[in-house]
Amino acid sequence: MTSAPRPLEGVRVVEFSHMVMGPTCGLILADLGADVVKVEPAPGGDKTRRLPGSGAGYFGTYNRNKRSISVNLKSVEGLKFATHLVRESDVLIENFGVGVLDRLGLGYDAMQEINPSLVYCALKGFLSGPYEQRAALDEVVQMMGGLAYMTGPEGCPLRAGASVNDVMGGLFGVIAIQAALWERQRTGKGTFVRAGLFENNMFLVAQHMVQYRQTGVPAAPMPERVSAWAVYDVFETADGEKIFVGVVSDKQWSQFCKVFGLDDLLQDAELQTNAQRVARRDAFMPRLRDLFGGQGLSQAATNCGRVGLPFAPILRPDQLFDDPHVNHTGATVEVTLSNGVRTQVPTLPFEYGGTRPSLYRDLPQIGEHNDAVARELGYSDEALERLRPSLGSAATVKME
To answer: CA dist 2 to 60, 119, 333, Å?
Structure first.
């Protein structure tokens, strides 16, 4: 564990969350130094600790640098404990279904009464409008919001290969929280902020919406699109690997032709501008595919790198563990998963004061910080004993 700037040190956050959107929001605040207390249901904890398949990486990715308390919010003492914690906090994050925390007595109106300076962030499927009460998932909003249509080939909508709306939705929650904390410095009052999955998805596809208004032609799915650039493709190499190469300017076209020995294409009067090349792709793309098909991946990458062309080998996520840039100091932190495995996890994708946000607290066990948080809130030994039946005991839950 290393030391790095913690600009949000001194800010306490209560996180009522599960899955990805809420935990992402809490993770970013925690990495920036906020004391994020994750409230898990007692005794089993956050269900994402035990998700199989594509959900197996959720907890390990989005919950470092947090403390965990496990509470039965349906018990009198448990709800009192949670309410006391909110009273002493700066920020509350929640991403449960519409009305869940309200029914427990932990909604915005009730919490604002006991803590007028609280910034309350609700992360939901939809913001204000006809769909506000609907349940949503990342997949739901990708399907109804045009992203799945844009990702797959015509007639085969395909969800993006990562939880893009959940992660970005959590990020927009952080932006709103930080704005509210800044405003609180002037007014002394907290406020209610929300971020929505569907609205996040709209933000992602906005360029395609505007493209239609600009051109009068609906945007085609990415596999079927007319690219803005003549060379913006994946090529198969002689060793059975694949490489993406982009040529996005006339200067890069010149560099591309020279490094790959395509002087005749460079001199062709009908290929001098990008617009000309887009119009005549069918005339030269078979030749480019043959060219890359005669070179190994290493040779093709070396040629592209020599003249500064944008290029990338096509890798699986598991192969990133061997990437030298991923293994550069500060690009990842190492956490301990519930199965005991130590693994690298990417840090936040920015530098602050010349360093990346670091790890200062490993993934928490369920309820690991029950006693510590209770004592910080002023619970005596006697009061803590009365509270214990409403708390889960600290335990490591292994993946199933």
So the answer is: 19, 30, 9
